[in-house]
Amino acid sequence: MRLKDRIAIVTGGSRGIGEAISHLFAKEGATVYIWDLLEEGAIVAEQIQEKGGKASFTKISITDQPAIEAEMAKIHAEHGRIDILINNAGITKDKTLTKMSNDDWDAVINVNLKGVFLCTRAVAPYMKAQNYGRIVCAASNVGIRGNFGQTNYVATKAGVIGMCKTWALELGKYGITANSIAPGYTVTPMTEKIPDALADQAVKFIPLRFKADPIDIAYGYLYLASDEARYVTGVCLPIDGGTSR
User: Fold this and answer.
1) Count of helix runs (H) and strand runs (E) in the chain
2) CB 7, CB 81: distance < 8 Å
3) CA 92, 97, 98, 104: dihedral to nearest 10 degrees?
4) I need a labelling partner for 61 at 20 to 30 A (CA). Which of 12, 33, 79, 85 fits?
5) What is the β-pairing status of strands 54-59 and 84-87?
């Protein structure tokens, strides 16, 4: 097992890529704490437990600093360590630049960027004290190349890439790695909103000519969260079928 006895927090672990990460990490021996506002997280935790894995669900907003810090303290008090933080939670509110409201901008920035900052800042002292940690954050290939109608989302994903590079510099001496993953078109509840015609058009620009399943992305998270990636930090790993080549 590649994550045997590791303690992992997965934000946004209730569905899509986060759900796949939660199942895979538990299968690989981690105790998984699923953080989400969606009640489906409780079902995911139950499914993991039924398979003999260790998981629990906490309904929490990653914009709620006091709640984040309290939950981290509880997990650390129970296990004496927190090994892995997967910053996966995110939202979209797509509009073109001139139609995007301040509320659209603020909502996405608060979850996708500030939420990642709050969770990572809260876990860092525990990881520093134990001289070990794996931080892996959800970026996106649009954070590398931009995307029509996603000024707010692209800004957050580009920001996540930059934050991870900075944390790699600041936390490396404590045995902590910080990396991001940039998925491409993945079949999730978020992308199901895309009209079929647009989806079919998008696939034509993917060299491998198919959309990713969540597990394709989850395996990247597993690698970066494992000791196999002990010498990998500050990296943004695109998993997008060659779109960001």
Assistant:
1) 9, 7
2) yes
3) 30
4) 79
5) unpaired
Element at 82 (helix H, strand E): none
Give the CATH number of the domain where residue 33 resides. Answer: 3.40.50.720
- List the chain pLDDT tens, one digit each, 245 residues: 999 999 999 999 999 999 999 999 999 999 999 999 999 999 999 999 999 999 999 999 999 999 999 999 999 999 999 999 999 999 999 999 999 999 999 999 999 999 999 999 999 999 999 999 999 999 999 999 999 999 999 999 999 999 999 999 999 999 999 999 999 999 988 777 777 777 788 898 899 999 999 999 999 999 999 999 999 999 999 999 999 88
pTM of the model: 0.96
Domain that holds residue 221: 7-183+215-238
Rounded distance, CA 117 to CA 122, Å?
Answer: 8
**Is 153 an active-site residue?**
yes
Q: What angle do CA 21, 166, 138 make, to 5 degrees?
A: 20
Q: Any idea how long the chain is? A: 245
Q: How far apart are CA 240 and CA 4, in angstroms?
A: 28
For residues 144 and 235, what is the distance between their CA atoms, to the nearest angstrom?
A: 13
Is 131 in a helix, a strand, or coil? coil
Q: Is residue 122 part of a domain?
A: yes
Count of domains forming the chain: 1
CA distances from 238 to 46, 103, 140, 241 (A): 31, 29, 8, 9
Q: Which amino acid belongs to residue 198?
A: L
Backbone angles phi, psi at 135, to 5 degrees: -115, 120
